[in-house]
Amino acid sequence: MRYYPLLLDLHHKNCLVVGAGTVGTRKIRTLLKASPKHLLVLDTAPFSTKLTRLAARHPELVLENRTFSANDLDQKHLVFACTSNRTLNAAIARGCQQRNILCNIIDDPQAGDVVLPSIIQRGDLLVTVSTSGKSPALCRTLRQELDCRFGEEYEILLDLLGRIRQAMLPLGQDSDDNAECFRSLVNSSLLAAIREKDTDEIRTILARLLPKELHPSIGALTHDLFPSL
After folding, report:
1. pTM for this model (two decimals)
2. Domain final position from 65, 97, 116
3. Catalysed reaction per UniProt (predicted)?
4. Which of 1, 46, 74, 191 is the most buried (most CB within 10 A)?
């Protein structure tokens, strides 16, 4: 296994994207979802209207119409080389390696440290698929299959489990007891009840599996799971 899988918190990180074409724009949009501290984007061509509008809504996004300079790597934590110039992309890769900066190189993935997986997102649930850069086509196919597999019910289930976790912490129960409770919830018919939007069944399951101390809170835990109902 060449690549070590991880999820990276960018809230206090500075990022750089060189090249704002179709691929670069996709990287920019995904990066903004992770709320980096600062995102600098460089391109010698005029920026698209979509990107300028995006920058107007995101103060952390800075667009500069100019060529790349080695100094642009200063204080950066993650860099994407997305230009159509292989020589420039290779130079960015070398600069990042010299400074120990994580980088993704669009036309030569193995020249960088990072390959990006396909992502299926349901709220805080992230499912990622990677072929280590060997077959983007297979990655897309697998992503499409998983996208059908994981519906919005998984987002709602995870949200509910998060609420339950916060409610259970003050009880001071043994960690093994908590773990067993969550295993029971995950292995129950709770997901199916959420898929069917059956709030009565959801509350019945919770009353059966949650500690008695939380029974008075079941209504509060579930009252807004389905805002449209």
Report:
1. 0.83
2. 116
3. precorrin-2 + NAD(+) = sirohydrochlorin + NADH + 2 H(+)
4. 191
